[in-house]
Amino acid sequence: MKLLYIDPGTGSMLFAILIGIIGALSYLLKGWIIKLRFLLNGGKKTEINTGKIPFVIFSDDKRYWNVFEPVCRELDKRGVDVVYMTASPDDPALTNPYQHIKGEFIGKGNKAFSKLNFLNATILLSTTPGLDVYQWKRSKNVDFYVHILHASNTVTGYRMFGLDYYDAILVSGDYQIDDVRALEQIRNLPAKELVKIGIPYMDEMVKRLQADSTVEASRDTTVLLAPSWGESAIFKRFGRKIIRVLLDSGYHVIVRPHPQSFSSEKDLIDSLMNEFPDSDKLEWNRDNDNFNVLKRADILISDFSGVMFDFSLVFDKPVIYADTEFDKSPYDSWWLDTPVWNFTALPRIGEKLTLDNFDSLKEMINNCLTNPKYTEGRKEVRSETWAYPGEGATRAADYLINKYQILTANKEGGEE
Question: Which end of the chain is more exposed for a tag (fewer CB within 10 A), N or C?
Answer without folding.
Answer: N
